[in-house]
Amino acid sequence: MSTEEKRNNEMENEDQQQPTISRRYFLAGAACLSAATVVSLSPLLNAEEVPSTDEFIQKHYKQLSDEDKKEIFAKLEAGIDKQYGVAATISDTQPIEGVEFAYVLNLGRCIGCRKCVYACMNENNQSRSPQKQYIRVLKMKQGTVNLETSNHDYPEKEASSEDFFYMPVACQQCREPKCIEVCPVKATWKEKDGIVVVDYNWCIGCRYCEAACPYHARRFNFAKPQISAQELNPDMGYLSNRPRYMGVMEKCTFCLHKTRRGEYPACMEVCPTGSRKFGNLRDPESEVRKIIEQERVFVLKQEAGTLPKFYYTFAK
Amino acid sequence: MNKDSSGIISDLAKTILIGNRTYALWMFALIAISLIGLNAFSRQLAHGLYTTGMGDEISWGLYISNFAFLVGMAAAAVMMVIPAYIFKDEEIHKVVIFTELWAIAALIMCLLFITADMGRPDRLWHMLPVIGVFNWPMSMLTWDALVLNGYLFLNLYVCGYVLYKKYKGQKLVTRHYVPIVFLAIAWAPLIHTITAFLFQGLAARPFWHSGLIAPRFLASAFAAGPAFIILVFKLMEYFKCCTIHKDVIAKIRIIVTVSLLINLLLFGSELFTELYSGSEHSIHLSFLLGFHGKSVLAPWIWSAVALNIIAAAILLLPARENPRLLNVACVMIVVGIWVEKGLGFVISGFIPTPLGDFVQYQPTFNELTVCFGILAFGLLIYTALLKIAVPIINGQLCHRKNSN
Amino acid sequence: MGKNKKKSHFNQGEFWKKIILPGTGILILIFFLWGDNKPEIPEAAPLNAEWYTPETARGEILVNTVMPGNCFICHSVQIPDPELIRPQFAHPTVKLDHGVNDRCYNCHHIYNRDSLAGDGETTIPFATPEKLCARCHGIIVRDWLAGTHGLRQGRWMIKAGEEPVNFTCTECHDPHSPKFKYKIAAPAPTWPDKTLRKVRHPNDDPKSAYLTESIQERF
């Protein structure tokens, strides 16, 4: 390239003449470049989700005042009504003082029917296609708790087999959640009652938390979430099951819009065998507390140092 | 002053815009590929990351792979800067600016790859300190953002200062830029170390959770980066841009050789630890190597290992004196380390998932196009920077002459 | 293309005509042909209500349901046999599969068929089966009373004056065959077609994990 340059410069020295570019060609080239650039951006015309100005400048959840929230919730409700024709209510239930949620799952009882998986979907408005499920039920072989030999795809007819045991895994609501440490923008954090939540309006979609989770508990909306109006659950929480955006992370929140009102989470209510137990860890009379004190419980991947509040037991 | 700066701009614009036929074709091709990449990226913006081969199981793919590789390429510039400024190697000092420019181009590619990987690039402002929420010092990603942008700034300053002064025909004032150069020398290993920490701090992924990752990253970067620089210098000689002293190539070759050997040693050490112990955590590596049934990545990683070993053999044998063979070895190293770091390291950390699910990674055409677009754009920037820097360093382009 | 209008030794006009103009045209053509190219995402089938409706594991399995009506109509004429194992006559559907507890009159009161058998001659009404179960499964009934065994619905935070939604033993377990035989199960998760995923063999040997030595064979 610079051979030319040298020659040019030599020429310059000799002829006092500079290499030039004609104005005509320069402008024509610039026109071509801009035309091609503009046309190359044409797929943006069909963008599936374009944030509104308000959404674009919306602050972090923790920086929102009560008036801001009111306004935002009203806009979201109106948007849901417009998109789905469903009159939804978005609540922002706050943690209850003195409550810390915990979960116990009795592997000795679980029959692997996967009803919890679908009750969760029914409650939490996850995308149906591509399918997002918070709970994964692993069919485990005898004599091992090796996750690598577990079967995630066993068909319905292989549920409740006595030769295997079944291990549902969802977010473990860790005391030391690695996912919130790694988030560059604090879009995910642990609430006072121990639930790890995501601000769907703040997440930048870097998926670092998904890489940092030892339980594969987080789900990312690679595509625009799809759910039909009939299946939309109108009882929504701002930090839990309101419709999600494309390109943001989501996860199990122990159905906080339900549980903070004193109800049971959907997965627990639907369990036909009573394998699941949910309650307030700080209440010595709660079921979970009694199980943890009386039975031999364990947590998944203790070596990861995440201190989960989701306990497993092999009780009768 | 105004007249002055407009003079510079027209000089620079002319230098970039005017070249011979090969240059014009090369630039045209790079612009065309960049635009096709931009087109693919806007498709990704419109329809989400579903247009890529990533999923919940393999949540980082080619973008982060390329990012990890290119951070190394950027950091590797320091391997020229150290001999030039610390050991006062005259010959290397003459050409060191070209490697610093490469660091700039590589960093721009890194930032573009990160942007391409975001689910919501429109919300990147959330990461700005003060205006947004910056989770520093907890999140390694914020550290990475700081060091990458800092390194970019340092290199822009040094290159900008040196080129501006030379263009103006003024003397370089040591205290105006050498301290920054030394800061950049300390900073360069930092960017790659922190990029390694990004991965190795995650206990959830046993494959990444090893203290050897940062040294391995550095060793592989100091092999691949200077190998690429050798190729660039040879190309510059071929196009008669400037003359590169024979010693320079020989010295870089030694750097490449030593780094490559250290990299192979560290890789071998990792291989032994994982495979000999046979613990559950070795599943990632043994699956990657194809010991557990069909692994899409196995042929890639085996060829990467082969490329690295053959390149090391060439560099150790007297054959290294053959310039053609040296070129071949350098290409092998760049490709081999790209595969080892990108496909072999980043992606296989996700196979199997923490719940033992085996999903393979297959990038989509759109995703590949975005990658090629970004790489082409980086090369475009590097070529343009060289197009300006070469005549300035050679003393053909200077203020005095043009302002007449 | 901004960069390629340079004139030095080659003809700018020629380069413009031969490369830039057709190149730009081809590029724009590529963008048009490639177009929007939205990835195809299939519509999802609606969720089957069976998959998420709460019910106990006993569900609606009627095979072993207890016959309604007054037991004395038949049992007043029959002389009870304390060793009786297999239910007879009117109870052909009842299959007793309760482990070592294989005598009808271990649980049913031998003379009072409207009640269950308590200690000695006492009776336990059908409404409180847990008292009968407690005779053998004391620890589990203790857990059940503590709320740590069995299914709960409703609220974890009981309001004043509210009763927890609880279920007795026989609402989940069939007393004649207490192991769960729940048949409703929901399907496995699905992945997009583009995902290259290894589906495990559905009939893999349950014991293979500790029967095989080599790590390779596990996969």
Defining traits:
heterotrimer, A: 316 residues, alpha+beta, Alpha-Beta Plaits, four-stranded mixed β-sheet, two-stranded parallel ribbon, 10 helices, 29% helix, 14% strand, globular, B: 404 residues, mainly alpha, Formate dehydrogenase/DMSO reductase fold, 14 helices
Architecture overview:
The complex is a heterotrimer of chains A (316), B (404) and C (219). Chain A has 316 residues and is α+β, with helices and mostly antiparallel strands. Chain A has a domain at 101-135 and 165-313: Alpha-Beta Plaits (2-Layer Sandwich). Chain A is 29% helix and 14% strand. Residues 1-17 of chain A have low confidence and may be disordered. By secondary structure, chain B is mainly alpha-helical. Chain B has one domain: Formate dehydrogenase/DMSO reductase fold, CATH 1.20.1630.10. Helices cover 72% and strands 0% of the residues of chain B. In chain B, α5 runs antiparallel to α13 (365-393) and α9 crosses α11. The radius of gyration of chain B is 22 Å and the shape is globular. Chain C is mainly α and 219 residues long. Chain C has 7 helices and 5 strands; from the N terminus they run αααββααββαβα. Chain C has a two-stranded antiparallel ribbon. A two-stranded antiparallel sheet of chain C has the order 3-4. The longest helix of chain C has 23 residues, at 12-34. Chain C is elongated and about 115 Å long. The model of chain C is unreliable at 1-8 and 211-219 (pLDDT under 50). Chains A and B meet through α1, α2, α6, α7 and β7 of A and α1, α2, α6 and α13 of B. β1 of chain B pairs antiparallel with β5 (196-197) of chain C, so a sheet runs across the interface.
